[in-house]
Amino acid sequence: MRKYSKQRESIRTYLATHCNHPTAETVYLSIREEFPNISLGTVYRNLALLEENGDISKISTGTGPDHYDGCTEPHYHFFCTECGNIEDLKMEPINHINVIANHNFDGLIEGNITYFYGKCQECAKKVKNAKI
Question: pTM here?
Fold first, then answer.
């Protein structure tokens, strides 16, 4: 068990109260208001520890920096390919996909990470209005 850290607890609290899936730099800029001497490296180390402990989730989009989520309950994410926004997608779980995937797989599938992507509501409006 790790020693208690006010900085780590502040990072965890920040992520638990912000649903915008911030990057490490966004977390750093916010936490700096409370801890002016904190370094970006310290934020990265604490994010890694929090993820390792299961207190937060890291979201890797494949492009750009990783994002972090304070909600560790199973849920899905939507990535906007236009503006880069990440949103929680409210939908029923699709756990049966593991059973389907196991049909033609000789190993044992224990879970999945599913991301949805396209254009968010605002970007979709912009595209629609540009075509008019």
Answer: 0.85
